[in-house]
Amino acid sequence: MSASEKIKAKAEQVVGKAVRKAAHALGKETTAAKGAALEARGKGRDMKEKGKDDFKL
Question: Which residues in the chain land under pLDDT 50?
């Protein structure tokens, strides 16, 4: 996994989780869903990169 892709994946996960939790606390369900989607995209990116690393071995 390239370092930049790993950083992007973690950043999306962290930001998505923060947005989701903050929006949920404020009762903003639409924004909470957007945060959850961002977090899921980060997890998907992380899984993709790990799969690429496994395939190279």
Answer: none
